[in-house]
Each structure stands twice: as C-alpha cells, then as structure tokens.
Amino acid sequence: MPAVALLVVAAWWLARPPAPHLLETGILAALAAFGLTPFVRLLAVRGGALDHPDARKRHGAPTPRLGGVAVFAAFVLALGRLAVLDREMLAITLMALVLMLAGAVDDTRGLSATLRLLLQLAGAVAVIVAGCRLSLFAEPAGAPINIALSLLWIVGITNAYNFIDGMDGLAASLGALIATLLALVARGGGQPGLALACAALTGALLGFLPHNFRLRRPASIFLGDSGSASIGFLLACLAIKEDWAEGDPLVALATPVLIYSVLIFDMIQTTVWRIGTGRVRTFRQWIDYTGRDHIHHRFADLLGSPRRALALIISLSLGLGLSALGLRRGEGRQALFFLVQGALVLLVVAVLQNAAAGAPRRRGRPRS
Q1: What is the pLDDT of residues 118-133, one digit of tens each?
Q2: What are phi and psi of 50, to 5 degrees?
Q3: Can you give the pLDDT at residue 247?
Q4: CA triple 320-324-327, angle to 5 deg
Q5: What residues are paired with 64 via a beta bridge?
Q6: Burial label, 113 (beta-carbon count in 10 A; 0-12, 13-18, 19+)
Q7: Of 81, 136, 205, 256, which has the most beta carbons under 10 Å away?
C-alpha cells in the first residue's frame, strides 16, 4: 500500500497541473506521507534512531523515531507544486527544515536541550526578520512589543507541541486538527496561500497517522524530535503569518489562542505545577525536566486508557477551537467572551484533574 501511494503521488505530480485547491493539496500530502513513512522507518531502524522503553514511557519495545522526516517531506512536496511560497513562507519552511535536521540528529545521537532551544530562538528571529510576526500594537511605537511577543509565541508553541508528543497518535491528530482550523479561518478570511499551506500540513499529518496510531497494536514509528520540533515550529509560525483581524487586536489575538488553547494550557499547567512543587527551580532545570505530568498523562490516569485520553483531548481542542471560526467577523467584545469561556472550561479541567489526582491519597488516610 505505501508503494502504491507513492506511485499515485508521482503520477499526480507529473500528469496533473497544480491546482490551488485545499482538498487536493491535503490528499496529495497525505498520500506522500503515508507512502514515505515505511521507508523512513527503515532508515531509523538501520541508523539506530530508536526510542527505548523506560519507566516514564508506555511503549514496551524499542520504536523507531524520525517520523517527522516523512511528514515534513510530504508537506514540502505538496506545497512545492503551488505558487504560494512568498518570503515569509520560504523563511518558515527553511527554518523548519533546520529544526527537522537538528531533531533527526537528536533522535539518532542526541543533542542538548540548550542547543535545541538556541536553534529555536534563531529560527524564530529569522522568520520575524522575514516579516512573520504579531501585529497587536500600533507600530512603530509598538514594534518592540510585537517582536517580543512573536518570539515568545514561536518558541513557546514549538515546545508546547513537543511536550504533547507523548502518546500514540496524539501529536499527529492534534496537529492536524489545529492546521485544519487554521485553514478554515484563513480561507474564510481571504488568505488562500496560508490556507493551502495549512491544508498541506493537515494532509501530511493525517497520512502519517495510520503508522503512529493503530487500533490493536502500538505505533510502528514516532514523530521523534525531528517531527515535534519542525511541526511545532510550522504550526507556531503559520498562526502569526497573517493578521486575523485588521484594526482589532483582541480578535487577532483570540483566534490563535483559542485554536492552540490545549497546547497553551498544558505548558502553563505543567510549568506552574513543577515550580510549585519544587521540581523545577532554574530555567535550565525547566528545559531538561521530563515527567508524566502533562495533560495526556493526567487524562490517561484519570480515564484508565490512553485512547480515551486521546479522544477527550481532541474533543476539548475541537470545542475550544471552533470558537475561533465564529470570530471571522466578530468584534472585540465577542472575542473577550470566547476567551473567558475557554479559560473557564480549562479551569474546570484543571480542577477536576487535580481533584482526581488527590482522591486516592485522601481515601487512603486513616480516620482520626
């Protein structure tokens, strides 16, 4: 089947002229990712890019990484047929390629967390210089604030996506959902180039998903750092490539925040919990820390099944992200309402998670 998919992609590429259609772009990327993944898996096995089981991980056998190589290649293949590579998109793609290559090295031989963070910062600066940045405050006076917020957004979302990659199918399906929502908002806002790029990323992730999420068997390959870093970077940059609402910074801010709300919530929750419990005391410790305290770990423990946790996280992300679709012609008051609504939903989630985590300890205390 993967070989057939690649033959279809080759015939499609050679015989059919490029068409700026979201569905066609997504299908092409999906077929390419589905066909390329087994070959990348073979390279990962031969190159020693394996994720070995330990006490923190659920999989029971060494599993190949480097899945991000297939996803990124499929994304570039689908997007390369279309004339949508402006200066900003070219910078985003090139910097994502750098992070993908660095991640592939990390998957194979290992890289320090500090070096990976420096590469993310360098990539963020490069795309900001190319013109991809937030425009929440009037310039030129507000330019330094816009640049600082853009830098924080890109690096933060890149790492948040990396943090969420801890369960079969989660990062790929959540990334595909986010990219789909971005494509719909971009299409409704008259941004066809951005919509096509998001459709290509959606298709690439969906094409990879059958290898990463299998009903009765564990994943045959993981995204690895090559995928989590490059895809997280792509998602972060695509969210701020265009303005979501001219003249209304609250609407422009609310749209990506709602779509990425689960990623943002997970990063904030784990950071606050680690600092509050004393597990993290320095920035270096925060970079290097790994643990089973992310939203997917908590939901899996609460529901007794990783698959139930996956379904709940996707449902939560979809419910909050759909609010962004209603802001295409919205006003600041409506954006504020959706933001408050989303914050309250996530607050309830946090309270229930903490209550469930503390319940066994309370039940185990002897009565006085």
Answers
A1: 999 999 999 999 999 9
A2: -120, 145
A3: 66
A4: 140
A5: 50
A6: middle
A7: 205
User: Which of 178, 172, 181, 194 lies closest to 310 in space, CA to CA?
Assistant: 172
Peptide bond into 366 cis (omega under 30): no
For the beta carbon of residue 83, count every other beta carbon within 10 angstroms.
Answer: 10
| Burial environment of residue 368 by CB neighbours within 10 A (0 to 12, 13 to 18, 19 or more) | exposed
Measured CA to CA, the distance from residue 171 to residue 177 in angstroms comes to 10
pTM of this structure: 0.91
DSSP 8-state code for residue 366 = P
pLDDT on residue 142: 85
CA distance readout (Å), 338 to 37, 173, 256, 326, 341: 39, 24, 12, 9, 5
Give 280-299 as a DSSP string. --SHHHHHH---S-SHHHHH
Q: Which tokens hold the place of 223?
A: 């995204």
Cα–Cα distance between 233 and 123 in angstroms, integer?
A: 9
Q: How far apart are CA 140 and CA 63, in angstroms?
A: 50
Contacts of 118 (CB under 8 A, 6+ apart): none
Estimate to the nearest angstrom the gap between the alpha carbon of 168 and the chain centroid.
Answer: 14
Which one, of 182, 155, 218, 175, lies nearest residue 68 by Cα?
175
Residue 64 phi, psi (nearest 5):
-60, 145
Tokens of 325: 């679709």
Q: Can you read off the two tokens belonging to residue 313?
A: 């996280």
